[in-house]
Write a structure and sequence with these properties.
The protein has about 350 residues and is an alpha+beta fold. Helix content is about 45%, strand content about 25%. It contains twelve helices and ten strands. It binds S-(P-nitrobenzyl)glutathione.
C-alpha cells in the first residue's frame, strides 16, 4: 500500500507580523492540527512568490498554497474546506448541519473578512493619502455593523452552530485580524469566542509552530551568514551547548559526529580555514515538525586549489524548545527530506 502523502503548504519566509499568526497560512495550519495531520511548510520569500515556480502553484503569487500528491490548491478557504471534507473532525456528519458549517466558512471570508481587509488597506497601504482620515470612520462603521450582527447571532453560545467546526475556525481566524485595531473590545461575547478558539490545543500548536519559524529561521540564517563571514564562533554559539553536528561519510574529511560547542567549533574551523574563497547560500527552507531542512548551494575554492567546488546539498537543523540541538548534513536533498519525515 502506498504511504499517505504528507501535504506541503507554503508560508512567508519572513512574516511581516513577526510570527503573530495573522498571515493566512495560520488558518490552514490550525485546520491541519485540528485534524491531527502531519504536514511540512515550504517557506517562500516575497521575491520567490512572484517567480514562475510559485505562480504555477498560486496564480496570484501569494501564500498559502497546498500540495498533496498531484493536487495543488490555493485560497485558504478552499484548502480548509478540502481538509475538512476529506478528514473527520471539522464538519458535522449530519448533511444539513454540514451545509450550515460550510455556510459559516463562506460568511467568514465573504461577509466578515472584506471590511476587515478594507481597514488593513486603508491603514497600511493608503495611510498617507489625503482621504484616509475621512475614509477611516466609514470603514470602521462597516466593520462594526458586521460585528453587531455576528455578536447578536452568537449570543451566549460557545460556537456558531452546535459543536466547533471549520466555520468557527475560519470566523475566528478572520476576527483575529481585528485584534491590533481594538475594534473587538466592544463585543465581550466575540472576544470570549475568539479566546475559546485560541485556547484550543490545535490552535496553540499551529501558532507556536509558525512563531518558531520566525525565530528559529533567523538563527539558522545567522549560522550560515556567520560561516560565510568566517566567524565560526558566532555560527556555533547559535546551537545548544549539548549539540550534535553530524556529517555523512562521503563528506570531505570522511564525515563524523561532533558533540558540544568545543568539538564542533574545532571541526567547523578546520573546514572553514581550508576555504580560500567562496560562499554557502541558502536556497530553500522546508519545515517538517521541529526540523528545518535547508537546501544549500556551496561554491568554494579551497586553499592551494585553482578549481571551484560547486555543489548542492542539504542540512537538517533540529530544534527543541527553541534551541538548535542537532545539525545533520546530507549529500542528497531528497535524503534530507526523507530523514526529516516529509
Ligand atoms: N484569498 C487568499 C487566501 O485566502 O488564501 C488571500 C491570500 C493572501 O492575501 N496572501 C497574502 C500574501 O501572500 C498573505 S496573508 N501576500 C503577499 C502578496 O500578495 O504579495 C495576508 C497577510 C499578510 C501579512 C499579514 N501580517 O503580517 O500581519 C497578515 C495578513
Amino acid at each position: 500500500m502506498p504511504l499517505p502523502t504528507t501535504p506541503t503548504i507554503t508560508a512567508f519566509e519572513r512574516s511581516p507580523d513577526r510570527g503573530k499568526g495573522l498571515a493566512r497560512d495560520m488558518r490552514v495550519r490550525w485546520a491541519l492540527e485540528e485534524l491531527g495531520l502531519r504536514y511540512s511548510v515550504r517557506l517562500v520569500s516575497f521575491d520567490a512568490m512572484k517567480q514562475p515556480a510559485h505562480v504555477a502553484l498560486h496564480p496570484f503569487g501569494q501564500i498559502p498554497t497546498y500540495e498533496e500528491g498531484d493536487l495543488v490548491l490555493f485560497e485558504s478557504g478552499s484548502i480548509v474546506l478540502h481538509l475538512a471534507q476529506r478528514h473527520a473532525g471539522l464538519l458535522p456528519d449530519d448533511a444539513n448541519a454540514r451545509a450550515r458549517a460550510i455556510t459559516w466558512m463562506f460568511a467568514a471570508i465573504n461577509s466578515v473578512e472584506p471590511p476587515i481587509l478594507e481597514l488593513v488597506t486603508t491603514k497600511f497601504l493608503e495611510g498617507d493619502k489625503p482621504w484616509t482620515k475621512e475614509r477611516m470612520p466609514l470603514v470602521e462603521a462597516r466593520i462594526r455593523n458586521r460585528l453587531d450582527q455576528l455578536s447578536a447571532r452568537l449570543g451566549d453560545a460557545d460556537w456558531l452552530d452546535g459543536a466547533f467546526s471549520a466555520g468557527d475556525l475560519m470566523m475566528i481566524a478572520v476576527l483575529l485580524r481585528l485584534k491590533p485595531s481594538g475594534l473587538l473590545i466592544g463585543y465581550p461575547n466575540l472576544c470570549a469566542y475568539v479566546a475559546r478558539g485560541e485556547a484550543r490545543p490545535a490552535y496553540q500548536r499551529a501558532f507556536n509552530d509558525q512563531l518558531a519559524v520566525f525565530t528559529d529561521i533567523e538563527l539558522v540564517k545567522e549560522t550560515y551568514a556567520a560561516i560565510n563571514r568566517n566567524e565560526v564562533p558566532a555560527a556555533v554559539s547559535a546551537f545548544d551547548p549539548q549539540m550534535e553536528w553530524i556529517e555523512p561519510s562521503n563528506y570531505p574529511g570522511g564525515g563524523g559526529t561532533y558533540r558540544g560547542h568545543a568539538e564542533v567549533m574545532a571541526h567547523v574551523l578546520k573546514g572553514r580555514n581550508s576555504w580560500a574563497e567562496g560562499r554557502c547560500e541558502v536556497e530553500q527552507f522546508i519545515v517538517v515538525g521541529g526540523k528545518i531542512v535547508v537546501f544549500l548551494h556551496a561554491r568554494v575554492r579551497l586553499k592551494d586549489h585553482a578549481d571551484w567546488i560547486d555543489g548542492r546539498f542539504a542540512d537538517v537543523h533540529t530544534f527543541r524548545n527553541g534551541k538548535a540541538i542537532q545539525m545533520r548534513s546530507f549529500g542528497e536533498r531528497q535524503e534530507a527530506l526523507d530523514w526529516a519525515g516529509q
